[in-house]
From TrEMBL:
InterPro entries: Cupin_2, RmlC-like_jellyroll, RmlC_Cupin_sf. This is Cupin domain-containing protein. Residues 39-106 form the Cupin type-2 domain. Pfam families: Cupin_2.
Amino acid sequence: MTTALTTFPLPDLASQISYSPDKFQSQILLNSPDQKTILFAFDQGQELKTHTTPKDALLLVLEGSCYFLFPEEEKSQTLQAGQIIRIPAQVPHALKALSPFKMVLIK
């Protein structure tokens, strides 16, 4: 027996949030006991200071680019639209927008 799938248009995530010159913007897309998904928009130069997350997380770049840093490991890289990175739990990390930058964080 096959089950028919209902199709519906998915929103363009990047268009769901706008840049602000004053501070980065965030919007919670999903908040359940098992998972939290957050959409972020950073204008050029805005950043998240070094912090940790209690669970592993995935960061998916939607548009623009950022400098991503694991300071204690002295590892860094530039992330571009379409790239994804896994952020291990309890590992300090930070990022800075190199251009207007949008991302989805899944944790």
